[in-house]
Design goal:
The complex is a heterodimer of chains A (about 110) and B (about 110). Chain A is mostly beta strands and about 110 residues long. Chain A has no helices and eleven strands. Classes of the chains: A mainly beta (about 110), B mainly beta (about 110).
Amino acid sequence: GAGVSQSPSNKVTEKGKDVELRCDPISGHTALYWYRQRLGQGLEFLIYFQGNSAPDKSGLPSDRFSAERTGESVSTLTIQRTQQEDSAVYLCASREARPTDTQYFGPGTRLTVL
Amino acid sequence: GQNIDQPTEMTATEGAIVQINCTYQTSGFNGLFWYQQHAGEAPTFLSYNVLDGLEEKGRFSSFLSRSKGYSYLLLKELQMKDSASYLCAGATGGGNKLTFGTGTQLKVEL
């Protein structure tokens, strides 16, 4: 079946602009995660959704970052007033209901802030 | 807090066996994942260890010792396509969020 999809695959923006990144999880997956991978670094957790609520937002680096999920499906990650240090690959993952289920990753969105 | 450590790079020969180690210090630890990531691609799931011991899956095996905060990924009969980054990740919290190491870049040579 279809895997996790993300759009756009690449985004180049100017410093100070807002961007929206989209994630379509695997159908029926109730949990959704956002991670960030900066060049040469490991993946960093940003936020976790269970259904449409976000019980863990502890990884969001600043109040410029926000995310929402609707219909227990699509999620959008919004970065306001982008900064150069926001440049990274933003990865989305989803899993089925049990926390021990595997997280499946999407291909990511490569964000470049000029 | 959480801290995951793994070697940055390793090189091995086609057909050989390689062991990639991972140590962790983390509270509320639920288990340990290994993912494979080829350059420019999404991480793909390899294994998940919750209990101590060895889990074998074809050419790949993963070991966990919770008391020692230690895991390893064992790759047998190495193939050129195994050249990739191998990510160790600890799962914590009610949602099993993942804390990743920086990844081990494995290069398989002829």
